[in-house]
Amino acid sequence: MPEYGRNVQKMIEYLVTVDDREKRLRQAEVIIELMGTLNPHLKTIEDYKHKLWDHLYQMTDFNLDVDSPYPCPSPEAVFKKPEVLPYPQESFPHRHLGKNIQELLTRAMEETNEETKHGLTQAIGYYMKLAYANWHKEPVHDDMIKNELAEISGGKLKYETGGYRVPYENNRNFKQRNNNNNNNNRNFKGNNNNNQGGGGPRNFRDNRDGSQGGGSGYGNNFNKNRKFNKNKGK
Questions:
Q1: Where are the alpha helices (DSSP H) in the chain?
Q2: pLDDT tens digit string along 99-108?
Q3: Longest pairwise C-alpha distance within the chain
């Protein structure tokens, strides 16, 4: 196991030759600590000490005789090959689309709701376009996807080319609403300007002062009332 280095290998070779059983155990424990320091990533594994002892036994060709906290594993258990996983061997046309497309096609053809079926058909067509572009590195025409999907599904699924378009009436209504909003915004700005330049708050302040009203009756009456109250107080 070269990941532990040459010096650890020499220590283990000497460890096997030690006759005193207690001394051999103490030195084995020291080597285990050194192995963990040289490979700190092993400490992230649950019960990593067990793995280090297995490595130590393995580097001694399973001939180390110590009273370790873990039993010595057998060579058959360490070098046992994993079982071969069965790989599904299925032959179906249009392999470039993958196996999942077959399940989607089956799901779409069995669907009874027309709206859901239409949505699944469009999604399948869009996925077929992506798969074709990944395999051939070139764009594909919608009519080709439409014909291929009809061939795969036996004519049960019809892909609509051109994508979704907003109807003309909806476009016209949207433009009409947009124009009405613009007119409302323009009227609001006009009213705001009238309030600032017409008979709004600014004129009220002018009338209150009396000097900026320019002959306004409100300003003159206000000045007269103020003088009358002052003379009455005298």
A1: 6-17, 21-38, 48-59, 75-78, 100-110, 114-136, 142-152, 168-197, 201-209, 217-233
A2: 788 888 888 9
A3: 129
